[in-house]
Amino acid sequence: MAYDADTAITIWPEYFDINRTRAEGRRLPKKLCVQYPDIDIIAKGALIMDLEYEIFENKAYPANWAAKRGCVKVEKGKISKTVLLPKIAEILIKNQKK
C-alpha cells in the first residue's frame, strides 16, 4: 500500500519519552522508552522497515501543544501501530546509546 497522508499512522515523539506518564501520552513501557526521542530517528525506523513516511517538524502533540516537537506519518497497511511502535522504540534505544 502506498503512502496516503489521510490514512497514515501518526507517530509522536511523546509516545517514546521516558519522562512522560501514560496519561501524558507515553504508549510503551519505560524499558522501551528514551529521553528526548528524535523524529529523525523515528523516521529512520520507518525507513528501515521499508515504510513510506513524511516528517512534520512544526506539529505539536495535542496534549503537549506548547512544545512543537513534530511528528512522523507512516503508511498504513503493512504493519499495525501496536507492532510498529515497539520496533521503532528498539531503533531509538540503539541510536541513543551511540
Automatic annotation (TrEMBL):
Keyword Ribonucleoprotein: yes
Keywords: Cytoplasm, Ribonucleoprotein, RNA-binding, Signal recognition particle
Primary location class: cytoplasm
Entry-linked Pfam families: SRP19 (PF01922)
One GO CC term, this protein: signal recognition particle
MF (Gene Ontology): 7S RNA binding
Localization, UniProt: Cytoplasm
Keyword Ribonucleoprotein: yes
InterPro entries, per the entry: Signal_recog_particle_SRP19, SRP19-like_sf, SRP19_arc-type
GO biological process assignments: SRP-dependent cotranslational protein targeting to membrane, signal sequence recognition
Annotated function: Involved in targeting and insertion of nascent membrane proteins into the cytoplasmic membrane. Binds directly to 7S RNA and mediates binding of the 54 kDa subunit of the SRP.
Subunit structure: Part of the signal recognition particle protein translocation system, which is composed of SRP and FtsY. Archaeal SRP consists of a 7S RNA molecule of 300 nucleotides and two protein subunits: SRP54 and SRP19.
Protein family membership: Belongs to the SRP19 family.
Name of the featured protein: Signal recognition particle 19 kDa protein
